[in-house]
Specification:
By secondary structure, this protein is mostly helical. It is built from ten helices and no strands. α5 (86-114) packs across α7.
């Protein structure tokens, strides 16, 4: 879809590409900034407390993001032993990226609403054959959509997703070690869950997206 958009509406593609890249970068920046505030300077020492997206983006994840619409960034390295309070630090660092994505999604929808967009006229901003649609408002819509996807998906309690680390903050030490060990199988676990529970996962994402749009945009 994105490659087709590049051919039919290059301005819209450019806006959407920037939105997608910064959505991933800001998610990781959230982790890095909070980790630094919690007492772990690892991310700051590696130059990850920055708005420069090149510091956060993974080449393969970025390529997939721009071609199929889903990708990943470079995880922010942390040393939980540096946190002033391990459980508090683990919780807030893990949830930081999710909160950043939800904030971006809400802000994008609020701006869309201020520009007169609602669920009744939403289709009018979409690019179509021979038309680029409304690049700015479509970019805002994509910003809301992709950031909800990133937030909800990362909330899943599957290693190495953020949700597993949020849960980990409340587990006894013995169980925490088990979760850390499972991270080596993280990619396979994520693929397994998406395959087996695809309908439930995407149903949850769509439900949250629609709920936010109904709440903020309304129908008239």
């Amino acid at each position: 879809m994105l490659l087709q958009l590049l051919q039919t509406a290059p301005m819209t593609f450019a806006i959407v590409a920037v939105v997608l890249l910064y959505s991933l970068a800001l998610h990781e920046l959230g982790h890095a900034w909070v980790a630094d505030r919690m007492g772990d300077p690892t991310a700051r020492n590696l130059g990850r407390v920055t708005l420069n997206p090149l510091k956060h983006l993974d080449p393969i994840g970025t390529l997939l993001l721009l071609t199929v619409g889903f990708g990943w960034a470079k995880p922010v390295p942390i040393q939980p032993g540096n946190f002033r309070n391990y459980r508090v630090g683990m919780f807030w660092v893990s949830i930081a990226g999710i909160l950043v994505n939800l904030t971006i999604a809400v802000l994008a929808l609020v701006i869309l609403a201020a520009l007169g967009t609602n669920l009744s006229n939403l289709r009018g901003i979409f690019p179509s054959a021979g038309s680029g649609g409304d690049p700015l408002r479509y970019g805002l819509f994509v910003a809301a959509q992709i950031n909800v996807v990133l937030a909800v998906f990362n909330l899943l309690p599957i290693p190495p997703l953020d949700g597993s680390k949020i849960v980990q903050a409340f587990l006894p030490a013995r169980m925490q070690r088990v979760v850390w060990q499972l991270e080596r199988y993280g990619f396979l676990l994520v693929i397994l869950v998406i395959t087996v529970f695809r309908e439930q996962v995407f149903g949850l994402i769509n439900g949250v997206t629609l709920g936010l749009m109904q709440l903020i945009l309304g129908t008239t």
